[in-house]
Structure formats: C-alpha cells, structure tokens
Write a structure and sequence with these properties.
Elements: H1 3-13, E1 17-19, H2 20-27, H3 32-44, E2 49-52, E3 55-57, H4 65-70
Antiparallel strand pairs: 1-3, 2-3
C-alpha cells in the first residue's frame, strides 16, 4: 500500500492515537516486521509521531496528555 493511501486512511479514521493493530487494519497485513517497518516509514514521512513502542499519534490532531496515558 502506498504512503498516500495510508495517509488518507489515517485521516479518514479520525483518530488521535494509533497502535500497531490499527496499522494492521489499514494495510491489511499481520506480519509484525511489515507493520513496524510501515510505522517507521510513517514516522519518517511525518504522518505519525512515535510515543513509545507500538503507540503512535497523529501530529495533525494531537491528543491530550491524559489520552496518551490511557492508551
């Protein structure tokens, strides 16, 4: 799946916090290596920001601190 298509899917989800499970649903893969590599590319392209391993935020819709803590 192309980065532009993933970006559009992320924007359409209207979520602030994403996990590897969410990325798995978007790209349709369950291969853990593929998921983490895709997440790494999304961070590198500025589409997502990494909070901790497996948890990412949408920098266009930053969540509140308590939302991150609850995740």
């Amino acid at each position: 799946m192309k980065m532009l298509a993933i970006f559009k899917a992320i924007q359409a989800m209207d979520k602030k916090i994403f996990t590897i499970a969410d990325i798995s649903k978007i790209i349709g893969s369950s291969n853990e290596n593929t998921l983490y590599k895709t997440a790494e590319k999304l961070v590198r392209n500025g589409i997502l920001s990494r909070v901790c391993k497996g948890v990412y935020i949408n920098p266009n819709q930053p969540p509140e601190i308590f939302e991150i803590a609850n995740q």
